[in-house]
Each structure stands twice: as structure tokens, then as C-alpha cells.
Amino acid sequence: MSTPQTLPDPGEYLSFNLANEHYAISILKVQEIRGYEGVTRVPDTPDYIRGVVNLRGEIVPVLDLRMKLGLKDARYDAFTVMVVIRLGDRSAGIVVDAVSDVVALGADDIRPTPELGAAVDTRFISAIGTAGDQMVILLDIESLIDWADIGERAELPA
């Protein structure tokens, strides 16, 4: 018997596209949205860590969310966006295909993640939201970011 899932709080979510699917994260975690620019590659990092950028003096690791989620290889074009998120006292950039909208989800719009079996990794999915006739996958961005892995590897060389 599984334990009941704790659903995310109702509120506003930033929705974005990855591989033609809609995902969203709490707007409270979003620091800023930027066009994707080049990054400084850091050797010996996992493939999903694209590198680092200097964001007004703060060195911020940049992750390709598509690669992190095991989706097809990312295509970078004019619509590619970097969403800078803030978790506690640390920031990270996540690269997404395009930002869609800010959606307001009430408690009735947020549903538990369905059981998909052991073959599907759903630990990064906090719930499924419905905004009108559109479904969005609500990501648990805090569990997606592996600070231990990023912090040890994604620092600029001295």
C-alpha cells in the first residue's frame, strides 16, 4: 500500500515546454527568465550540466532540463530560454524549449501523479495540473537539482 502523495500548494506556476509537453514550476522559485546564451563549459561534468554563467557576479550552474529528464536531445534555437531559479541561497539556470505562461492553479486543479509502475521514474513530478483544457506536469524542482553534484563540479577554474 502506497502512502498518500503530498500535493503542491495552489498558486501561480511558470509553465514551459520540453519536447512538446507542458511542465511547470512554482513561480515563487523563479528569479528571472533570460534568453539562452552561451555558457562556459566545465570539464568532467554530467551531460545535463551545460556549464556556468556569470549572473551579475554570481557563478550560476546551467542545467539542460530536457537531458536531466531523459528526453530527446535538446535543440537550441531562438525560442530556447534559461529560467534562473532560486532555491534557498543558491541559484541555477534551467534550459527549456520555450516559456509558455504563468498559470494560476487552485486546489481543485492539482491532482496526484498517477501510478505508472516501477519502470517510470516519477520522483521529480510533484503532481499533474490542469489549466483550462491543458495539462501541465508540475515538477519538484528542488529534487531535480542535485546540489552535491553541481556544487562539487560546476565551479569555474581559478
Description of the structure:
This protein is mainly beta and 158 residues long. 9% of the residues lie in helices and 45% in strands. It contains 3 helices and 11 strands; from the N terminus they run E-E-E-E-E-H-E-E-E-E-E-E-H-H. The strands form 2 sheets. It has a 6-stranded mixed sheet with strand order 8-1-2-11-10-9, with no helix packed on it. It has a 5-stranded mixed sheet with strand order 3-6-7-5-4. The chain is globular.
Compact summary:
By secondary structure, the chain is mostly beta strands. It has helices spanning 65-68, 141-144, 147-153; strands spanning 11-18, 21-26, 30-35, 49-55, 58-64, 81-87, 90-96, 98-105, 110-111, 125-131, 134-139. The model is unreliable at 152-158 (pLDDT under 50).
Our measurement of the CA-to-CA distance between the termini, rounded to an integer number of angstroms, reads 51 Å
Gyration radius over CA: 16 Å
The fraction of residues assigned to DSSP E strands is 35-45%
Helix content: under 10%
| Largest pleated sheet | 6 strands, mixed
Q: Spell the H/E element sequence.
A: EEEEEHEEEEEEHH
Mean pLDDT: 86
User: Could you say which overall geometry the principal axes of the C-alpha atoms support?
Assistant: globular
Stretches where pLDDT is under 50 for at least 5 consecutive residues are 152-158
Number of helices: 3
Structural class: mainly beta
Side by side, the strands of the main sheet go: 8-1-2-11-10-9
Count of strand segments: 11
